[in-house]
Design brief:
By secondary structure, this protein is an alpha+beta fold. The chain is built from 5 helices and 17 strands. The strands form 4 sheets. The protein has an 8-stranded mixed sheet. The chain is elongated and about 70 Å long. The two termini are 38 Å apart. The mean pLDDT is 94.
């Protein structure tokens, strides 16, 4: 599912409204349509909002996509173009052999003339022959939950300081997401679910009448400076890093894929890669 329904960021205090005013000006300077609302305007745009909101920032060009469906579609497209996918496998080590690269996984080895390290939160756990340092990517847990909505749906994605709400066409609403330093623990927790429910009800009181469906958790790969790590290894030829996207993996996936493909296939390195170079973290 993909919908470009716009997003409405909601302010509950003057400090947030000040950021919205600054963001509105910056977006206008870049030619991005945005509309700043006062309290009445925000509630007119989204009647479900709490009466205590001070205003909002609407960006009509924003949208949302179902990440799981997108991933399955990309995998199917890759297979149609000749890609071989090994599912439920984990890369352990990368080494060199007669000019090629060998990727050792827990389900066998793969050989090729180029490797992209895009293992998300686990990228730093892959041993690379000849590279002493590991890319500094850590897992940051995010919990989210699904509600069966009761009554008229929200008109678009709603953001606040504490949560966001995404209305699906099937009548459910996704509420996300926590940000937790919990290591590789992918369990949902009572405190995480409670905090999300409280935040959703604070933003949209009608959430109190929704039925709880399920909760999920995942791990976001965050680099040491919370910027992506995209670029070639300075030690091993034909290794490219593409990891550390933190909370923007789906958003940055098309751009990352283009940058990596241009570098590997065309030996063309975009100047943008200077900002995401792995070498900012040492000899990688």
């Amino acid at each position: 599912m993909y919908r470009r329904s716009g997003t409405l960021d909601v302010a509950m205090d003057e400090e947030t409204m000040g950021r919205f005013r600054a963001a509105s000006g910056a977006l206008a300077a870049r030619g991005v349509a945005a509309e700043l609302f006062d309290a009445r305007g925000a509630r007119t745009e989204e009647p479900h909002l709490n009466g205590d909101v001070l205003g909002g920032l609407l960006i009509p060009s924003h949208g949302f996509v179902a990440a799981a469906d997108l991933t399955r579609a990309l995998a199917a497209a890759a297979r149609r173009h000749g890609a071989q996918l090994i599912e439920h496998g984990r890369a352990v080590r990368i080494s060199s052999s007669h000019g090629d690269l060998v990727v050792v996984t827990d389900r066998g080895s793969l050989i090729g003339n180029g490797v992209v390290v895009a293992a998300g939160s686990w990228s730093g756990q892959i041993e690379i022959e000849g590279v002493a340092a590991r890319v500094p990517v850590r897992p940051v847990r995010g919990q989210l939950l699904y509600l069966a909505w009761n009554g008229p749906l929200l008109g678009r994605v709603i953001w606040s300081e504490r949560c966001y709400l995404v209305p699906w066409e099937d009548g459910t609403v996704l509420v996300g997401a926590t940000v937790e330093e919990a290591g590789f623990d992918e369990r949902t927790t009572t405190v995480g679910v409670r905090d999300l429910i409280d935040a959703a009800c604070e933003l949209v009181p009608q959430a109190r009448t929704a039925a709880f469906m399920t909760a999920k958790a995942g791990l976001r790969p965050a680099s040491a400076d919370e910027l992506p790590v995209i670029g070639p290894s300075s030690v091993v030829p034909n290794i490219m890093y593409a990891t550390g996207h933190y909370r923007n993996g789906v958003l940055l996936a098309p751009l990352t894929a283009q940058l990596v493909a241009d570098a590997i296939l065309e030996n063309r390195f975009d100047p943008l890669l200077a900002a995401t170079s792995p070498q900012r973290f040492g000899v990688l």
